[in-house]
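Much of what follows relies on a compact textual record of a protein's fold. A record is reproduced here so that you can trace the correspondence yourselves:

. . .
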Amino acid sequence: MTWLEASHQWNLFWSQPITRCEVYAYCGPFGICHDSADDGFCECLPGFEAASPNNWNFADGSGGCVRKADLQCGNGTHSNGERGQFHRESNVRLPEYPLTLPTSGAMQCESACLNNCSCSAYSYYMEKCIVWGGDLLNLQQLSDDNSNGQDFYLKLAASELNGKVSSSKWKVWLIVTLAISLTSAFVIWRIRRRLRRKGEDLLLFDLSKSSVDTNYKLSEANEVWRGEKKEVDLPMFSFASVSAATNYFSIENKLGEGGFGPVYKGKSQKGYEIAAKRLSKRSGQGWQELKNEAMLIAKLQHKNLVKLLGCCIEQDEKILIYEYMPNKSLDFFLFDPTKHGILNWKTRVHIIEGVAQGLLYLHQYSRLRIIHRDLKASNILLDKDMNPKISDFGMARIFGGNELKATNHIVGTYGYMSPDYALDGLFSTKSDVFSFGVLLLEILSGKKNTGFYQTDSLNLLGYAWDLWKDSRGQELMDPGLEETLPTHILLRYINVGLLCVQESADDRPTMSDVVSMLGNESVRLPSPKQPAFSNLRSGVEPHISQNRPEICSLNGVTLSVMEAR
Protein backbone atom coordinates (compact mmCIF):
# COMPACT_ATOMS: atom_id res chain seq x y z
CA MET A 1 0.00 0.00 0.00
CA THR A 2 1.04 3.59 -0.60
CA TRP A 3 -0.03 6.73 1.29
CA LEU A 4 -1.78 9.39 -0.79
CA GLU A 5 -1.02 12.76 0.79
CA ALA A 6 -3.66 14.59 -1.21
CA SER A 7 -6.56 12.41 -0.03
CA HIS A 8 -4.97 11.37 3.28
CA GLN A 9 -5.68 7.70 2.73
CA TRP A 10 -3.92 4.44 1.86
CA ASN A 11 -3.97 3.25 -1.76
CA LEU A 12 -3.96 -0.54 -2.35
CA PHE A 13 -1.89 -1.47 -5.42
CA TRP A 14 -1.14 -5.17 -4.75
CA SER A 15 -2.46 -7.88 -2.44
CA GLN A 16 -2.28 -11.63 -1.98
CA PRO A 17 -4.14 -13.90 -1.97
CA ILE A 18 -6.50 -12.56 -4.62
CA THR A 19 -9.17 -15.20 -3.97
CA ARG A 20 -9.97 -17.36 -0.98
CA CYS A 21 -9.13 -20.47 -3.01
CA GLU A 22 -5.49 -19.37 -3.04
CA VAL A 23 -5.31 -19.76 0.75
CA TYR A 24 -3.60 -23.08 1.49
CA ALA A 25 -6.05 -25.86 2.50
CA TYR A 26 -8.86 -23.30 2.74
CA CYS A 27 -11.53 -26.00 2.67
CA GLY A 28 -9.66 -28.51 4.83
CA PRO A 29 -9.24 -32.27 4.17
CA PHE A 30 -11.45 -33.65 1.38
CA GLY A 31 -12.97 -30.23 0.79
CA ILE A 32 -12.83 -28.56 -2.61
CA CYS A 33 -12.75 -24.82 -3.22
CA HIS A 34 -14.78 -23.54 -6.19
CA ASP A 35 -12.95 -20.83 -8.07
CA SER A 36 -16.04 -19.23 -9.62
CA ALA A 37 -18.58 -19.57 -6.82
CA ASP A 38 -20.16 -16.41 -5.39
CA ASP A 39 -21.00 -18.00 -2.06
CA GLY A 40 -20.60 -21.39 -0.44
CA PHE A 41 -16.98 -21.30 -1.55
CA CYS A 42 -16.19 -24.67 0.01
CA GLU A 43 -17.86 -27.95 -0.79
CA CYS A 44 -17.29 -31.52 0.33
CA LEU A 45 -16.22 -34.05 -2.26
CA PRO A 46 -18.84 -36.64 -3.30
CA GLY A 47 -19.18 -39.33 -0.64
CA PHE A 48 -18.09 -36.92 2.12
CA GLU A 49 -19.88 -34.62 4.57
CA ALA A 50 -18.79 -31.67 6.69
CA ALA A 51 -16.74 -32.61 9.74
CA SER A 52 -18.27 -29.65 11.59
CA PRO A 53 -21.62 -28.63 10.02
CA ASN A 54 -21.98 -25.76 12.46
CA ASN A 55 -18.71 -24.16 11.31
CA TRP A 56 -19.64 -24.66 7.65
CA ASN A 57 -22.89 -22.75 8.29
CA PHE A 58 -20.69 -19.79 9.24
CA ALA A 59 -18.62 -20.17 6.01
CA ASP A 60 -15.70 -21.79 7.86
CA GLY A 61 -14.73 -24.94 5.96
CA SER A 62 -11.21 -25.25 7.36
CA GLY A 63 -12.25 -28.32 9.36
CA GLY A 64 -12.78 -30.20 6.13
CA CYS A 65 -14.92 -33.24 5.46
CA VAL A 66 -15.18 -36.89 6.51
CA ARG A 67 -16.35 -40.01 4.65
CA LYS A 68 -20.01 -40.97 4.83
CA ALA A 69 -19.10 -44.65 4.46
CA ASP A 70 -15.68 -45.98 5.43
CA LEU A 71 -13.74 -48.19 3.05
CA GLN A 72 -12.74 -51.62 4.27
CA CYS A 73 -9.07 -52.44 3.65
CA GLY A 74 -8.24 -55.31 1.30
CA ASN A 75 -8.86 -55.82 -2.39
CA GLY A 76 -10.88 -52.64 -2.67
CA THR A 77 -13.97 -54.19 -0.99
CA HIS A 78 -16.50 -52.52 1.25
CA SER A 79 -17.91 -54.19 4.35
CA ASN A 80 -20.95 -55.40 2.39
CA GLY A 81 -18.70 -57.27 -0.05
CA GLU A 82 -18.97 -54.67 -2.81
CA ARG A 83 -15.87 -53.37 -4.54
CA GLY A 84 -14.87 -49.78 -4.00
CA GLN A 85 -15.22 -47.53 -7.02
CA PHE A 86 -13.84 -44.24 -8.27
CA HIS A 87 -15.52 -40.91 -8.86
CA ARG A 88 -13.93 -38.62 -11.44
CA GLU A 89 -13.41 -34.92 -10.77
CA SER A 90 -12.50 -32.91 -13.89
CA ASN A 91 -10.44 -29.73 -14.37
CA VAL A 92 -9.15 -29.76 -10.81
CA ARG A 93 -5.96 -28.42 -9.30
CA LEU A 94 -4.53 -31.64 -7.90
CA PRO A 95 -4.02 -32.15 -4.15
CA GLU A 96 -0.69 -31.66 -2.39
CA TYR A 97 1.89 -34.35 -1.56
CA PRO A 98 1.41 -36.96 -4.33
CA LEU A 99 3.43 -40.14 -4.87
CA THR A 100 4.37 -41.64 -8.25
CA LEU A 101 3.96 -45.38 -8.89
CA PRO A 102 5.61 -47.38 -11.71
CA THR A 103 2.74 -48.72 -13.84
CA SER A 104 2.22 -49.56 -17.50
CA GLY A 105 -1.12 -47.85 -18.06
CA ALA A 106 -4.24 -46.17 -16.66
CA MET A 107 -5.98 -49.45 -15.82
CA GLN A 108 -2.98 -50.73 -13.87
CA CYS A 109 -2.80 -47.38 -12.06
CA GLU A 110 -6.48 -47.68 -11.06
CA SER A 111 -5.96 -51.26 -9.88
CA ALA A 112 -2.91 -50.27 -7.84
CA CYS A 113 -4.89 -47.59 -5.98
CA LEU A 114 -7.97 -49.78 -5.56
CA ASN A 115 -5.97 -52.55 -3.92
CA ASN A 116 -3.88 -50.25 -1.71
CA CYS A 117 -5.39 -49.64 1.73
CA SER A 118 -3.82 -46.20 2.11
CA CYS A 119 -4.64 -44.88 -1.37
CA SER A 120 -7.37 -42.21 -1.35
CA ALA A 121 -7.24 -41.10 -4.99
CA TYR A 122 -5.20 -41.33 -8.16
CA SER A 123 -4.56 -39.45 -11.41
CA TYR A 124 -3.03 -40.78 -14.63
CA TYR A 125 -1.36 -37.85 -16.36
CA MET A 126 1.44 -37.67 -18.94
CA GLU A 127 1.76 -41.50 -18.74
CA LYS A 128 2.50 -41.27 -15.01
CA CYS A 129 0.52 -42.88 -12.19
CA ILE A 130 0.11 -40.33 -9.37
CA VAL A 131 -1.55 -41.42 -6.10
CA TRP A 132 -2.45 -39.80 -2.80
CA GLY A 133 -2.66 -41.42 0.61
CA GLY A 134 -4.51 -40.08 3.64
CA ASP A 135 -6.21 -36.67 3.57
CA LEU A 136 -6.55 -34.72 0.31
CA LEU A 137 -5.58 -31.08 0.85
CA ASN A 138 -5.70 -27.90 -1.23
CA LEU A 139 -8.14 -29.12 -3.88
CA GLN A 140 -9.53 -26.45 -6.18
CA GLN A 141 -12.23 -26.70 -8.84
CA LEU A 142 -11.07 -24.41 -11.66
CA SER A 143 -13.46 -22.25 -13.63
CA ASP A 144 -14.62 -23.15 -17.15
CA ASP A 145 -12.30 -20.57 -18.72
CA ASN A 146 -9.28 -22.07 -16.95
CA SER A 147 -8.27 -25.38 -18.57
CA ASN A 148 -5.05 -25.93 -16.62
CA GLY A 149 -6.54 -28.56 -14.36
CA GLN A 150 -6.42 -32.35 -14.58
CA ASP A 151 -8.77 -35.25 -13.95
CA PHE A 152 -8.37 -37.16 -10.73
CA TYR A 153 -10.23 -40.17 -9.39
CA LEU A 154 -11.50 -40.34 -5.81
CA LYS A 155 -11.91 -43.75 -4.16
CA LEU A 156 -15.39 -44.22 -2.66
CA ALA A 157 -17.48 -47.03 -1.26
CA ALA A 158 -19.58 -48.73 -3.93
CA SER A 159 -22.72 -47.62 -2.10
CA GLU A 160 -21.82 -43.98 -2.78
CA LEU A 161 -21.76 -44.45 -6.57
CA ASN A 162 -24.79 -45.38 -8.70
CA GLY A 163 -26.72 -46.70 -5.72
CA LYS A 164 -26.15 -50.07 -4.12
CA VAL A 165 -25.40 -52.47 -6.93
CA SER A 166 -25.26 -56.08 -5.82
CA SER A 167 -22.29 -58.29 -6.56
CA SER A 168 -24.39 -60.59 -8.74
CA LYS A 169 -25.61 -57.69 -10.88
CA TRP A 170 -22.07 -56.40 -11.18
CA LYS A 171 -20.91 -59.81 -12.40
CA VAL A 172 -23.74 -59.99 -14.94
CA TRP A 173 -22.84 -56.53 -16.20
CA LEU A 174 -19.20 -57.57 -16.53
CA ILE A 175 -20.06 -60.74 -18.48
CA VAL A 176 -22.36 -58.85 -20.86
CA THR A 177 -19.73 -56.17 -21.43
CA LEU A 178 -17.05 -58.75 -22.15
CA ALA A 179 -19.32 -60.57 -24.59
CA ILE A 180 -20.09 -57.36 -26.47
CA SER A 181 -16.40 -56.40 -26.52
CA LEU A 182 -15.31 -59.79 -27.87
CA THR A 183 -17.99 -59.71 -30.56
CA SER A 184 -17.02 -56.19 -31.59
CA ALA A 185 -13.34 -57.12 -31.66
CA PHE A 186 -14.09 -60.08 -33.94
CA VAL A 187 -16.10 -57.93 -36.36
CA ILE A 188 -13.35 -55.28 -36.46
CA TRP A 189 -10.73 -57.99 -37.04
CA ARG A 190 -12.68 -59.33 -40.03
CA ILE A 191 -13.03 -55.84 -41.50
CA ARG A 192 -9.34 -55.10 -41.07
CA ARG A 193 -8.43 -58.44 -42.59
CA ARG A 194 -10.29 -57.48 -45.76
CA LEU A 195 -8.66 -54.05 -45.81
CA ARG A 196 -5.23 -55.65 -45.49
CA ARG A 197 -5.70 -57.55 -48.71
CA LYS A 198 -6.64 -54.40 -50.58
CA GLY A 199 -3.97 -52.08 -49.16
CA GLU A 200 -4.47 -48.38 -48.45
CA ASP A 201 -4.13 -45.72 -51.11
CA LEU A 202 -1.04 -43.62 -50.39
CA LEU A 203 -2.37 -40.89 -52.67
CA LEU A 204 -5.29 -40.39 -50.27
CA PHE A 205 -3.26 -40.80 -47.08
CA ASP A 206 -3.67 -38.03 -44.49
CA LEU A 207 -0.43 -37.39 -42.59
CA SER A 208 -2.27 -35.27 -40.06
CA LYS A 209 -3.67 -38.51 -38.64
CA SER A 210 -1.58 -40.46 -36.17
CA SER A 211 0.50 -43.22 -37.73
CA VAL A 212 -0.48 -45.37 -34.74
CA ASP A 213 -4.04 -45.65 -36.12
CA THR A 214 -3.31 -48.58 -38.41
CA ASN A 215 -4.92 -51.55 -40.12
CA TYR A 216 -2.01 -53.80 -41.02
CA LYS A 217 0.17 -56.16 -39.07
CA LEU A 218 3.62 -57.12 -40.28
CA SER A 219 2.96 -60.74 -39.45
CA GLU A 220 5.82 -61.76 -41.75
CA ALA A 221 8.12 -59.65 -39.63
CA ASN A 222 7.34 -61.36 -36.31
CA GLU A 223 10.49 -62.07 -34.39
CA VAL A 224 11.25 -63.51 -30.99
CA TRP A 225 12.82 -60.99 -28.63
CA ARG A 226 13.55 -62.19 -25.13
CA GLY A 227 11.22 -65.11 -25.63
CA GLU A 228 8.22 -62.98 -26.62
CA LYS A 229 6.70 -62.44 -30.07
CA LYS A 230 6.48 -58.83 -31.12
CA GLU A 231 4.27 -57.57 -33.91
CA VAL A 232 4.39 -54.21 -35.63
CA ASP A 233 1.25 -52.28 -36.53
CA LEU A 234 1.72 -50.15 -39.64
CA PRO A 235 -0.46 -48.80 -42.44
CA MET A 236 -0.08 -51.03 -45.50
CA PHE A 237 -0.08 -49.19 -48.84
CA SER A 238 -0.66 -50.73 -52.25
CA PHE A 239 2.28 -50.76 -54.65
CA ALA A 240 0.17 -49.02 -57.30
CA SER A 241 -0.48 -46.03 -55.00
CA VAL A 242 3.18 -45.79 -53.92
CA SER A 243 4.26 -45.92 -57.55
CA ALA A 244 1.82 -43.17 -58.52
CA ALA A 245 2.83 -40.99 -55.55
CA THR A 246 6.51 -41.15 -56.59
CA ASN A 247 5.73 -40.49 -60.28
CA TYR A 248 6.43 -44.16 -60.98
CA PHE A 249 9.84 -43.99 -59.28
CA SER A 250 11.09 -41.46 -61.82
CA ILE A 251 14.70 -40.28 -61.80
CA GLU A 252 13.46 -36.74 -61.07
CA ASN A 253 11.96 -37.98 -57.81
CA LYS A 254 15.04 -39.88 -56.72
CA LEU A 255 16.56 -38.40 -53.57
CA GLY A 256 19.55 -40.67 -53.15
CA GLU A 257 20.67 -44.25 -52.77
CA GLY A 258 22.00 -46.16 -49.80
CA GLY A 259 22.71 -49.65 -48.63
CA PHE A 260 19.07 -50.72 -48.89
CA GLY A 261 18.43 -49.17 -52.28
CA PRO A 262 17.07 -45.94 -53.78
CA VAL A 263 14.97 -43.37 -51.90
CA TYR A 264 12.26 -41.44 -53.76
CA LYS A 265 10.24 -38.36 -52.97
CA GLY A 266 6.47 -38.79 -53.18
CA LYS A 267 3.37 -36.68 -52.80
CA SER A 268 -0.23 -37.50 -51.89
CA GLN A 269 -3.26 -35.84 -53.45
CA LYS A 270 -3.67 -33.88 -50.22
CA GLY A 271 -0.25 -32.33 -50.72
CA TYR A 272 1.68 -34.28 -48.08
CA GLU A 273 5.24 -35.17 -49.03
CA ILE A 274 6.83 -38.52 -48.18
CA ALA A 275 10.10 -40.39 -48.72
CA ALA A 276 9.82 -43.95 -50.06
CA LYS A 277 12.75 -46.30 -49.43
CA ARG A 278 12.63 -49.16 -51.95
CA LEU A 279 14.60 -52.33 -51.26
CA SER A 280 16.84 -53.09 -54.21
CA LYS A 281 17.16 -56.66 -55.44
CA ARG A 282 20.91 -56.04 -55.70
CA SER A 283 21.13 -54.62 -52.19
CA GLY A 284 23.78 -55.99 -49.87
CA GLN A 285 21.34 -55.26 -47.05
CA GLY A 286 18.20 -57.28 -47.46
CA TRP A 287 14.74 -57.93 -46.12
CA GLN A 288 16.07 -58.84 -42.68
CA GLU A 289 17.60 -55.38 -42.15
CA LEU A 290 14.61 -53.57 -43.61
CA LYS A 291 12.28 -55.65 -41.44
CA ASN A 292 14.45 -54.88 -38.42
CA GLU A 293 14.19 -51.15 -39.13
CA ALA A 294 10.41 -51.30 -39.52
CA MET A 295 9.92 -53.26 -36.32
CA LEU A 296 12.11 -50.98 -34.24
CA ILE A 297 11.21 -47.52 -35.49
CA ALA A 298 7.46 -48.25 -35.49
CA LYS A 299 7.70 -48.63 -31.71
CA LEU A 300 9.59 -45.36 -31.20
CA GLN A 301 8.11 -41.89 -30.80
CA HIS A 302 10.43 -38.93 -30.33
CA LYS A 303 10.77 -35.58 -32.05
CA ASN A 304 14.41 -36.31 -32.88
CA LEU A 305 13.74 -39.67 -34.58
CA VAL A 306 12.47 -39.94 -38.15
CA LYS A 307 8.82 -41.03 -38.32
CA LEU A 308 7.81 -44.21 -40.16
CA LEU A 309 4.41 -43.72 -41.82
CA GLY A 310 3.82 -47.16 -43.31
CA CYS A 311 5.06 -49.79 -45.72
CA CYS A 312 4.32 -51.65 -48.94
CA ILE A 313 4.91 -55.39 -49.27
CA GLU A 314 3.68 -56.93 -52.51
CA GLN A 315 5.44 -59.97 -53.97
CA ASP A 316 9.07 -58.87 -54.54
CA GLU A 317 8.42 -55.21 -53.69
CA LYS A 318 9.34 -54.09 -50.19
CA ILE A 319 9.10 -50.35 -49.47
CA LEU A 320 9.14 -48.25 -46.29
CA ILE A 321 7.34 -44.89 -46.25
CA TYR A 322 8.79 -42.07 -44.12
CA GLU A 323 8.06 -38.43 -43.45
CA TYR A 324 9.89 -36.25 -45.95
CA MET A 325 12.83 -34.15 -44.77
CA PRO A 326 13.11 -31.09 -47.07
CA ASN A 327 16.55 -30.05 -45.80
CA LYS A 328 18.10 -33.40 -46.69
CA SER A 329 20.80 -34.68 -44.33
CA LEU A 330 23.47 -33.07 -42.18
CA ASP A 331 26.40 -34.15 -44.37
CA PHE A 332 24.83 -32.34 -47.35
CA PHE A 333 25.51 -29.01 -45.61
CA LEU A 334 28.34 -29.77 -43.20
CA PHE A 335 30.96 -31.02 -45.65
CA ASP A 336 30.10 -28.80 -48.62
CA PRO A 337 32.25 -25.62 -48.65
CA THR A 338 29.49 -23.78 -50.52
CA LYS A 339 26.72 -24.71 -48.09
CA HIS A 340 28.21 -25.17 -44.61
CA GLY A 341 27.79 -21.45 -43.90
CA ILE A 342 24.06 -22.11 -43.58
CA LEU A 343 24.90 -24.00 -40.39
CA ASN A 344 25.59 -21.08 -38.05
CA TRP A 345 26.65 -21.67 -34.46
CA LYS A 346 23.10 -21.58 -33.09
CA THR A 347 21.93 -24.15 -35.65
CA ARG A 348 24.88 -26.45 -34.96
CA VAL A 349 24.25 -26.38 -31.22
CA HIS A 350 20.56 -27.09 -31.89
CA ILE A 351 21.51 -30.12 -34.01
CA ILE A 352 24.03 -31.39 -31.44
CA GLU A 353 21.52 -31.14 -28.60
CA GLY A 354 18.73 -32.72 -30.68
CA VAL A 355 20.86 -35.73 -31.65
CA ALA A 356 21.92 -36.12 -28.01
CA GLN A 357 18.28 -36.12 -26.88
CA GLY A 358 17.36 -38.68 -29.54
CA LEU A 359 20.16 -41.03 -28.47
CA LEU A 360 19.27 -40.59 -24.80
CA TYR A 361 15.70 -41.62 -25.64
CA LEU A 362 16.92 -44.74 -27.46
CA HIS A 363 19.27 -45.73 -24.63
CA GLN A 364 17.14 -44.92 -21.62
CA TYR A 365 13.55 -43.80 -22.16
CA SER A 366 12.09 -45.69 -25.14
CA ARG A 367 9.86 -48.75 -24.80
CA LEU A 368 12.74 -50.80 -26.22
CA ARG A 369 16.30 -49.97 -25.18
CA ILE A 370 18.16 -49.67 -28.49
CA ILE A 371 21.73 -49.30 -29.78
CA HIS A 372 21.75 -47.56 -33.17
CA ARG A 373 25.20 -48.82 -34.34
CA ASP A 374 25.38 -46.57 -37.41
CA LEU A 375 25.18 -42.97 -36.19
CA LYS A 376 26.82 -40.59 -38.68
CA ALA A 377 26.26 -37.26 -40.41
CA SER A 378 24.42 -38.77 -43.39
CA ASN A 379 21.95 -40.47 -41.04
CA ILE A 380 20.94 -37.19 -39.39
CA LEU A 381 18.04 -35.79 -41.42
CA LEU A 382 16.91 -32.16 -41.17
CA ASP A 383 13.31 -30.95 -41.40
CA LYS A 384 12.18 -27.57 -42.72
CA ASP A 385 13.17 -25.90 -39.43
CA MET A 386 16.57 -27.64 -39.32
CA ASN A 387 15.45 -29.90 -36.49
CA PRO A 388 17.61 -33.07 -36.50
CA LYS A 389 16.07 -36.53 -36.77
CA ILE A 390 18.08 -39.74 -36.40
CA SER A 391 17.37 -42.21 -39.22
CA ASP A 392 18.49 -45.61 -40.54
CA PHE A 393 17.71 -48.27 -37.93
CA GLY A 394 18.58 -51.23 -40.14
CA MET A 395 21.66 -52.05 -38.04
CA ALA A 396 20.08 -51.20 -34.68
CA ARG A 397 19.83 -53.79 -31.93
CA ILE A 398 17.78 -54.18 -28.75
CA PHE A 399 19.63 -54.78 -25.51
CA GLY A 400 18.93 -54.86 -21.79
CA GLY A 401 20.37 -52.73 -18.99
CA ASN A 402 24.15 -52.33 -19.11
CA GLU A 403 24.41 -55.38 -21.33
CA LEU A 404 27.50 -55.87 -23.50
CA LYS A 405 27.01 -57.87 -26.70
CA ALA A 406 29.51 -59.49 -29.04
CA THR A 407 29.29 -60.18 -32.75
CA ASN A 408 31.55 -61.38 -35.54
CA HIS A 409 29.39 -59.55 -38.07
CA ILE A 410 30.81 -56.01 -37.98
CA VAL A 411 28.56 -53.45 -39.67
CA GLY A 412 28.76 -49.69 -39.68
CA THR A 413 30.71 -46.85 -41.23
CA TYR A 414 34.47 -46.40 -41.04
CA GLY A 415 35.42 -43.44 -38.89
CA TYR A 416 32.39 -43.61 -36.61
CA MET A 417 32.90 -47.05 -35.03
CA SER A 418 34.38 -47.40 -31.56
CA PRO A 419 37.56 -49.50 -31.16
CA ASP A 420 35.79 -52.04 -28.94
CA TYR A 421 33.29 -52.66 -31.74
CA ALA A 422 35.55 -52.33 -34.81
CA LEU A 423 38.38 -54.43 -33.37
CA ASP A 424 36.67 -56.84 -30.95
CA GLY A 425 33.04 -56.95 -32.13
CA LEU A 426 31.75 -55.74 -28.73
CA PHE A 427 28.93 -53.21 -28.74
CA SER A 428 26.93 -51.41 -26.08
CA THR A 429 25.45 -47.95 -25.54
CA LYS A 430 29.04 -46.69 -25.30
CA SER A 431 29.46 -47.61 -29.00
CA ASP A 432 26.82 -45.01 -29.88
CA VAL A 433 28.47 -42.54 -27.50
CA PHE A 434 31.72 -42.89 -29.48
CA SER A 435 29.90 -42.24 -32.77
CA PHE A 436 28.22 -39.20 -31.21
CA GLY A 437 31.62 -37.85 -30.13
CA VAL A 438 32.96 -38.14 -33.70
CA LEU A 439 29.83 -36.43 -35.03
CA LEU A 440 30.13 -33.66 -32.43
CA LEU A 441 33.73 -32.88 -33.44
CA GLU A 442 32.74 -32.96 -37.12
CA ILE A 443 29.93 -30.47 -36.51
CA LEU A 444 32.25 -28.12 -34.60
CA SER A 445 35.03 -28.27 -37.19
CA GLY A 446 33.09 -28.76 -40.43
CA LYS A 447 35.58 -31.52 -41.34
CA LYS A 448 35.18 -35.28 -41.84
CA ASN A 449 36.95 -37.58 -39.44
CA THR A 450 38.03 -39.78 -42.36
CA GLY A 451 40.12 -38.40 -45.19
CA PHE A 452 41.35 -35.62 -42.91
CA TYR A 453 45.09 -35.01 -43.00
CA GLN A 454 47.19 -32.41 -41.24
CA THR A 455 50.98 -32.38 -41.02
CA ASP A 456 51.16 -34.26 -37.72
CA SER A 457 47.62 -35.65 -37.44
CA LEU A 458 46.21 -38.84 -38.92
CA ASN A 459 42.51 -37.96 -38.60
CA LEU A 460 40.17 -35.40 -37.07
CA LEU A 461 40.31 -37.05 -33.64
CA GLY A 462 44.10 -36.82 -33.61
CA TYR A 463 44.00 -33.23 -34.83
CA ALA A 464 41.51 -32.24 -32.12
CA TRP A 465 43.64 -33.99 -29.49
CA ASP A 466 46.83 -32.23 -30.61
CA LEU A 467 45.12 -28.84 -30.43
CA TRP A 468 43.65 -29.69 -27.02
CA LYS A 469 47.04 -30.73 -25.59
CA ASP A 470 48.60 -27.49 -26.83
CA SER A 471 45.76 -25.37 -25.36
CA ARG A 472 44.75 -24.32 -28.89
CA GLY A 473 41.35 -26.02 -28.91
CA GLN A 474 39.62 -22.93 -30.30
CA GLU A 475 41.45 -23.47 -33.61
CA LEU A 476 39.23 -26.51 -34.23
CA MET A 477 36.25 -24.21 -34.89
CA ASP A 478 35.00 -24.22 -38.48
CA PRO A 479 36.64 -21.15 -40.08
CA GLY A 480 33.47 -20.66 -42.12
CA LEU A 481 31.64 -19.50 -38.99
CA GLU A 482 31.71 -15.74 -38.73
CA GLU A 483 30.21 -15.53 -35.24
CA THR A 484 32.37 -14.53 -32.32
CA LEU A 485 31.46 -16.75 -29.39
CA PRO A 486 32.96 -17.17 -25.93
CA THR A 487 35.97 -19.48 -26.09
CA HIS A 488 34.95 -21.36 -22.95
CA ILE A 489 31.70 -22.53 -24.62
CA LEU A 490 33.53 -23.93 -27.66
CA LEU A 491 36.15 -25.59 -25.45
CA ARG A 492 33.41 -27.18 -23.35
CA TYR A 493 31.86 -28.79 -26.43
CA ILE A 494 35.29 -30.01 -27.61
CA ASN A 495 35.94 -31.44 -24.14
CA VAL A 496 32.66 -33.38 -24.27
CA GLY A 497 33.49 -34.64 -27.77
CA LEU A 498 36.91 -35.90 -26.69
CA LEU A 499 35.41 -37.64 -23.64
CA CYS A 500 33.00 -39.48 -25.95
CA VAL A 501 35.80 -40.85 -28.18
CA GLN A 502 37.98 -42.31 -25.44
CA GLU A 503 39.80 -45.58 -26.17
CA SER A 504 38.16 -47.46 -23.30
CA ALA A 505 34.37 -47.69 -23.18
CA ASP A 506 34.54 -47.29 -19.38
CA ASP A 507 36.08 -43.84 -19.82
CA ARG A 508 33.23 -42.62 -22.03
CA PRO A 509 30.20 -40.91 -20.45
CA THR A 510 26.64 -42.14 -20.88
CA MET A 511 24.26 -40.13 -23.06
CA SER A 512 22.55 -38.98 -19.88
CA ASP A 513 25.90 -37.56 -18.74
CA VAL A 514 26.47 -36.00 -22.17
CA VAL A 515 23.10 -34.20 -22.15
CA SER A 516 23.84 -32.89 -18.66
CA MET A 517 27.35 -31.72 -19.61
CA LEU A 518 26.12 -29.94 -22.75
CA GLY A 519 23.20 -28.23 -21.08
CA ASN A 520 24.62 -27.32 -17.68
CA GLU A 521 27.77 -25.22 -17.50
CA SER A 522 28.00 -25.80 -13.75
CA VAL A 523 28.77 -29.50 -14.31
CA ARG A 524 32.51 -30.03 -13.88
CA LEU A 525 34.07 -31.88 -16.82
CA PRO A 526 36.87 -34.42 -16.39
CA SER A 527 40.00 -34.04 -18.50
CA PRO A 528 40.03 -36.35 -21.55
CA LYS A 529 42.74 -38.88 -22.29
CA GLN A 530 44.18 -39.47 -25.75
CA PRO A 531 41.26 -40.54 -27.99
CA ALA A 532 40.99 -43.80 -29.89
CA PHE A 533 42.51 -44.18 -33.36
CA SER A 534 44.38 -40.87 -32.99
CA ASN A 535 47.77 -42.54 -33.50
CA LEU A 536 46.83 -45.28 -36.01
CA ARG A 537 46.83 -45.13 -39.77
CA SER A 538 43.42 -45.85 -41.19
CA GLY A 539 44.90 -48.74 -43.16
CA VAL A 540 45.19 -50.90 -40.05
CA GLU A 541 41.46 -50.87 -39.35
CA PRO A 542 40.24 -54.46 -39.77
CA HIS A 543 37.40 -55.52 -42.05
CA ILE A 544 36.54 -51.95 -43.08
CA SER A 545 37.06 -50.67 -46.59
CA GLN A 546 38.62 -47.21 -46.75
CA ASN A 547 38.85 -46.80 -50.54
CA ARG A 548 35.14 -46.66 -51.21
CA PRO A 549 33.88 -43.06 -51.41
CA GLU A 550 31.31 -42.16 -48.78
CA ILE A 551 27.77 -41.77 -50.04
CA CYS A 552 26.35 -38.26 -49.64
CA SER A 553 22.66 -38.30 -48.75
CA LEU A 554 20.07 -36.25 -50.57
CA ASN A 555 17.41 -36.81 -47.92
CA GLY A 556 18.15 -40.54 -47.90
CA VAL A 557 16.66 -42.43 -45.02
CA THR A 558 19.11 -45.34 -44.98
CA LEU A 559 22.48 -44.41 -46.34
CA SER A 560 24.86 -46.84 -44.66
CA VAL A 561 28.04 -47.69 -46.50
CA MET A 562 27.87 -51.38 -47.35
CA GLU A 563 30.53 -53.48 -45.70
CA ALA A 564 31.85 -56.90 -46.70
CA ARG A 565 29.86 -59.70 -45.15
Summary: Residues 20-160 form one domain. The CA atoms of residues 278 and 319 lie 4 Å apart. The radius of gyration is 30 Å.
